Fold this sequence. Notes:
Elements: H1 11-29, H2 31-41, H3 43-62, H4 67-87
Helix pairs in contact: 1-4, 2-3, 2-4, 3-4
Amino acid sequence: DIAHTDGLIPSSTEGLIVSLFSIGAIFTAFPVISSYFVDVWGRKVSIMFGSSIFMAGSIIQLTAWGRAQLLVGRFVAGMSIGFFFTGI
């Protein structure tokens, strides 16, 4: 089981899980990416798109059977935060 190594998640894995969410947010908040979505699609659609990305990331995390899938889900969920910050 990914979450249990003698009942604990190793601190390095825990740090990676937490940091990937922020890295995803930084990735989509980068002006080249965020300005494209806001300028072309508009603020409201960008926020709705960010919401759907968050739901997709949550589903990926919910169904995670391994470490890689959990980490990808954290990154995808974090990407939605970049859309929220630039749209609001």
